[in-house]
Amino acid sequence: MAGILDTARYRAFLATELDVSPKDIQAMLMGGHGDTMVPLPRYTTVGGIPVTEMISEEKLTAIVNRTKTGGGEIVNLLGTSAWYAPGAAAAQMVESILKDQKRIVPVCAWLQGEYGLKDIYLGVPVKLGRKGIEQIIELKLNAEETELLNNSAKSVKEVMGVLDSMLA
Questions:
Q1: Which of 9, 11, 33, 68 is catalytic?
Q2: Which fold does the domain 2-167 belong to in CATH?
Q3: What is the pTM of this model?
């Protein structure tokens, strides 16, 4: 649910800056949760209009950076981690599965060659329906986006390695 949560945060920050409804913003984030997430402004639209035509590159970069550190911002404000947003994200996933909505959402999926990555759970866009993850959607990433995704995967694998060593 981290991908849905992070995407909602990104959409909210964009909506505030643009003074529009977050419902009109379609966006996608990939990778791990936190500062290695990979927001994709190229795949972000506002009412079908590319976000890059509605906001300066500097402001968009600031919003991307704020999205990456937004979890820490919540902890600093509340003194604890968020509780409503993760629950809402999980509920959105459950609804998509139970109602077979086939929503396209970013979730943590087991990759076996997609995006050139193997044996890793990582946030990627999927079709989520009655059977759970029904399809992993491979976006055509440019070189910079691919590098960011690979860096995120490396960070996730390092955390997985630490956890594996604790179980050994």
A1: 33
A2: L-2-Hydroxyisocaproate Dehydrogenase; Chain A, domain 2 (3.90.110)
A3: 0.88
